[in-house]
Amino acid sequence: MSNLVGLLVHVARSLEIFPRYMELHRSSKSLYDGLHLAPMSPERSNVPMNWDRVEGNWKQMKGKAREKWGKLTDSDFEQIAGKREQLIGRIQERYGLSKDEASRQVEEWSRMQKEEEHQHSKV
Prior knowledge:
mainly alpha; single chain; 0% strand; 69% helix; 8 helices
């Protein structure tokens, strides 16, 4: 059961709905027994951009991804089509990285995109 709850928390965080999820389920203490959750910053800048948004805006986002990973080809970007796991796989393949390192780079890139978007929304 705790693995399932951990997975749900991970998914909720990645979808940026975790604060609402916690608010709705605070009364269910048994659900959270034994869970150790890291605190979230008020602006949640440490949370990567929602991948639905990346996928939905892939035409714009792939230009930024191309700047970061220049070894990826046009064909790679077409096949990736905004899919996170496809991007990680192509980065692994083209750069000879471990899955963990490619995943870390994608998460960092995603976080930077979110921060840039946040900065533009303040202007």
